Amino acid sequence: FSQGLTSVPDAKKAVFTFITVVVVPLLFFVLVELGLTVAGVGTSFDYFHEISIDGQPHYQENPDFADQFYPPSLNIGPIENTFTRERDPELVRVFILGGSAALGFPHKNHGLDRLLSTQLRAALPAKRIEVINLAMTSVNSHVMYAVARSVPEDSADFAVILMGNNEVVGPYGPGTFNQNFLGSITVIRGLQALKRTRIWQALNGLMMQIRPTDAKQDLEWEGMQMFTNHRVPHDDPRMDGVYGHYEDNLTDIIETLQDKGMHVLLSTVPVNLRHSAPFLSLRSPDLSDEQIDQWRESTRQGAQSASEGNWDEAIEHFQAALAIDPGYADTHFRLASALENMGNHDEAKAHYERALDLDALRFRADTRINHIVHEVAGRMEGDSFSFVDSAAAFERASAPFQAGWNLLLEHVHYDFAGNHLLAAEISRSIAGDMTGADDFEPLPGPETARRIGFPNYDSIAEIENLQGMIQYPPFPGQSNYAQLAAFLGDKLQRLNGAVGSPEDLIRGRQDIVRSGYADWKIYFELAVLNQRLRNQSAMYYHLNQIFKLYPHNRESYMKIADAMTKEGKWREVIPYLEQSLNYTRNDEEKIAETIGWLGTAYLRTGEYEKATDLLLEVTEEYSDQIGLTLRAYGNLIKHSRERNNVKELERYAEDVQAYARSLIRKGKDKEYPLLYQRMSQLMTMGGYDDEAKEWAEAQAQ
Are 361 and 474 in contact (CB under 8 A)? Predict the structure, then answer.
């Protein structure tokens, strides 16, 4: 009994200690976190923001999402997507998760998402189809896990996962330039959870003000060459952590999306085996000078025999080189090519795969990554999961060879044919799940290309962009770099021949419209083409069709606003500009541009008070946008003088000069070299000739 009495104070003491040590500090941090959130400190890192458009709730991507993984200066982030929160029974919505290959790079409008949407419309004609691409450049499974965690429940019917190329070079990978590799996935997720708190963001902001700027925060995106100093050999002990993280993330992504009401389709990751030589081959450190000389001679002789078409001799020489250094990736690649030319495709495949696995710049999903995909798929049960072996489909489509330039453009990014094959396989799976039958036959390539308007002028520009990209490391280090350059040159030539004139394109796109298959991007292309040909009425028609099919594209509103402005249709332009404000995504330049434009429109329609408020809003809230602020002051000065309002004219003239002088004090006149010239023009506009002369002289000095 006495022991029981003693235990009561002990229990109270334990509870008090728990409250003091755990509950009170936790409550304190929760309150601080809430206070900072209310005060607007920091930002949300959810993938979607919820916004209201015309009184209806919508989801819109969060431009800041990837800033929790990469410096904001890199501008890595989601592509633009806006869609209604509420879904009707006739809508089928599909999310795509992955890296740049899933994003569709370099094809801006002809990637996997557009082709999948086209196939699903053919498979499910009674349904409305929305394919929303959540993929991003240079991200890996750590980022996609954060995406899966933050997407809203019941926001999509299906989620497609095509992910695995960036596991080494993405965030927390051993080959990244940004974060240090961390071996514990628990630590990684804990660190990311801290980064999402407003407390962490506030402290980090203070530290950035106190300490010198971290060079990583000022990085500019330079493509794959940013990773070339981070070699990771196949036997690097950190690779076990990479594979473990990938498997854990993949499993958790699938289960998270399933818990949110989505049917998940997991795909293997096809890569270019046949025509992408390793980016970096590492020689064994144990070789003697004599062995290195022998290896070099065998490699030289093998390359010479291959160039002469003596494949038997090439095979013999490359095998001799491998006997000396079996871990040199490029020797496997060259041997595979020689074996292929002798018709030994099975052995060639083994060496192509070995070249992939030994590549020390690990930009491609290797064989172990795809093996993990198979293993994870094998463990999944239930009706809300499907497996699509896209890598096997690529191999079948390339037989007896391995996948190469027939389906891909360089190492991992798919050409139209590759994206078509992916879309066909995925749409077949979705259609089977929706209908309970497996009889859907995907549209053939030529018909798919016709319905989405491939190729077009964008296609030409995209290959030209790719030609520029491969001029930089690591591409010139590939042993088949000359062939890659020639391949892209030939492709560009064929595209130029296939696209034709603007008139040809318009006829082709009009045929798509007549057939009833046109999506909003077809109408946008028609609007642009007709604008080039100065057919204004056709341009207006096609832009208005876009607003019916997809009223969430800011560029469409700005294009019609620009045309109406040039024609002096100021009253008509106002609703389009106001609607476009829903799609500025907190971009201050876009907001200031639109508000200033609205101010000008209201001036022209005689609504002076509303116009003045809008123009002053630009000068007061968006003064970092120098050109737009000066333009707003210009409209205010011009309007005041036209109305002979001397008091307002003097005020605006004084304000804009004070603004300009503050820019000069801060050194921002160097960021905007036209400052003095624009100030001289504004003073002349206001009738202040002496001040105008002073600004002109200051410019000369």
Answer: yes
pLDDT of res. 205: 78
For residues 548 and 575, the answer to whether their CB atoms sit within 8 Å is no
Written as six digits, the tokens of 187 are 């630590």
pLDDT digits (tens, 9 = 90+) for 561-601: 999 999 999 999 999 999 999 999 999 999 999 999 999 99
Report pTM.
Answer: 0.93
What is the β-pairing status of strands 82-84 and 56-61?
antiparallel
Name residue 264's beta-bridge partners: 159, 385
82-84 and 158-162 strand pairing: unpaired
DSSP letter for each residue of 614-635:
HHHHHHHH-TT-HHHHHHHHHH
With left for phi above 0 and alpha for psi between -120 and 50, is residue 436 left, alpha or beta? left
Cβ neighbours around 413 below 10 Å, total: 23
User: Residue 645: what pLDDT?
Assistant: 94
Separation CA 386–CA 257 (nearest Å): 13
According to DSSP, the residues that pair with 82 across neighbouring strands are 60
Whole-number Å distance between alpha carbons of 137 and 153: 25
Chain-centre distance for alpha carbon 448 = 24
**pLDDT band at residue 203 under the 50/70/90 scheme:** confident
Distance CA 557, CA 550 (A): 11
Burial of 142 (0-12, 13-18, 19+ CB in 10 A): buried
Taking a C-beta distance cutoff of 8 angstroms, is the pair 314, 391 a contact? Answer: no
Q: Which of 9-18, 250-259, 649-658, 679-688 has the lowest mean pLDDT?
A: 9-18
Q: Residue 598: which of 623, 618, 624 has the closest Cα?
A: 618
Within 10 Å of residue 221's Cβ, how many Cβ atoms?
A: 13
